[in-house]
């Protein structure tokens, strides 16, 4: 189907033909449309991937990847490639009473002293926020806690919990303690409006009146989206657990859905441009039926005739895709730079993944190929006797 001769004729029809100027114009529009669609798709996927990675690192650094209930074989978990560390852990809800009012928060108790790390892993690799010292009754809270309650650092606040409440002559008495809001870390609130405060595990355990043998186990993993092996191991040992998706799963599903939606919308630009290829090739086939008949008469087979027009569509598709990639990469960084210079939102980052580039390029070229099949088949089926008589 494809040979030097068919390639030479395809180039002749596209670039050196003095007739069918309108068809050549439509082909040019096709190249421009494909280039625009590919460039827009690269910008979209790069920025969405950068946003996804940024949110993933920020939100999932605070949200526990896996919380196992009462699991003692922590050393066995460290043998999994995906597990970085394990540590005793507490996470419960409580009311935070400040001079600014009441708010519901997640209270996390983290134990740095009993943090077990895989060989070659350091605490800094886990991106842990600052954890107050034992007995200090201090909290490291999200910045949103200070903003929403209009309070400052070193403000005393009361944590109130109904967990392990006690019965008294006055009725059920919740457990409560005074803590000092000493530190803060960037807010990561998403669709889950409940903020997080972090304290020393011993101080938090006393607040909730928990025994040391009732603590849970926090499992840190390399990638929160790749924890299937750890889940299977916990299921096999009948261990109850909670995943990060129980708290933030809906948010990341929304991000993924938005990414897919934007990709489909921008892919439509490429499809419209590919339709232009079909139109241009159809016009060329109609106007060159006499030439096609001559080529068949001198010995070109139907397969080679089909190959000529398929190559014409592929050349347009490859050219448009190449231009789109060349434009899309610098355009991505230009858009990110412009958005960051506006200063009205959080820093925007882009992640240009070579795999995504390859998928976009292959998808664009395949779409161009699909829309060449009909006019190419029509050219191959042309009757040389009828068309020579017309000539």
UniProtKB/TrEMBL annotation:
UniProt-recorded name of the protein: FtsX-like permease family protein
Keywords assigned: Cell membrane, Membrane, Transmembrane, Transmembrane helix
Topological type in the membrane: Multi-pass membrane protein
Principal place of residence: membrane
Record localization: Cell membrane
Chain segments annotated as transmembrane: 21-43, 264-286, 307-336, 356-374
Family listed: Belongs to the ABC-4 integral membrane protein family. LolC/E subfamily.
Pfam families: FtsX
């Amino acid at each position: 189907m494809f040979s030097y001769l068919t390639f030479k004729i395809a180039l002749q029809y596209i670039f050196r033909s003095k007739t069918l100027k309108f068809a050549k114009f439509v082909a040019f529009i096709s190249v421009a449309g494909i280039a625009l669609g590919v460039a827009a798709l690269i910008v979209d996927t790069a920025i969405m991937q950068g946003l996804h990675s940024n949110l993933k690192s920020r939100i999932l650094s605070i949200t526990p990847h896996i919380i196992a209930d009462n699991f003692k074989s922590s050393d066995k978990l460290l043998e999994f490639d995906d597990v970085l560390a394990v540590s005793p852990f507490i996470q419960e809800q409580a009311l935070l009473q400040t001079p600014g009012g009441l708010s519901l928060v997640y209270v996390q108790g983290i134990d740095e002293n009993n943090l077990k790390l895989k060989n070659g892993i350091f605490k800094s690799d886990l991106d842990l926020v600052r954890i107050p010292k034992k007995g200090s009754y201090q909290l490291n809270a999200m910045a949103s806690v200070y903003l929403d309650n209009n309070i400052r650092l070193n403000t005393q606040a009361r944590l109130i919990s109904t967990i392990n409440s006690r019965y008294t002559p006055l009725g059920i008495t919740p457990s409560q303690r005074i803590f000092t809001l000493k530190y803060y870390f960037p807010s990561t609130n998403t669709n889950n409006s409940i903020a997080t405060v972090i304290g020393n595990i011993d101080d938090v355990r006393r607040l909730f009146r928990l025994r040391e043998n009732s603590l849970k186990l926090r499992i840190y993993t390399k990638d929160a989206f790749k924890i299937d092996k750890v889940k299977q191991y916990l299921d096999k040992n009948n261990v109850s657990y909670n995943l990060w998706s129980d708290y933030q799963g809906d948010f990341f599903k929304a991000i993924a859905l938005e990414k897919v939606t934007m990709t489909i919308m921008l892919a439509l630009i490429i499809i419209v441009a590919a339709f232009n290829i079909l139109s241009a090739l159809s016009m060329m086939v109609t106007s060159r039926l006499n030439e096609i008949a001559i080529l068949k008469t001198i010995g070109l087979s139907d397969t080679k005739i089909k190959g000529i027009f398929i190559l014409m569509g592929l050349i347009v598709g490859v050219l448009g895709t190449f231009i789109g990639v060349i434009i899309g990469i610098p355009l991505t960084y230009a858009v990110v730079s412009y958005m960051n210079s506006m200063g009205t939102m959080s820093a925007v980052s882009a992640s240009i993944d070579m795999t995504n580039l390859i998928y976009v390029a292959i998808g664009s070229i395949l779409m161009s190929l699909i829309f060449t099949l009909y006019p190419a088949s029509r050219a191959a089926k042309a009757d040389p006797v009828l068309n020579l008589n017309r000539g």
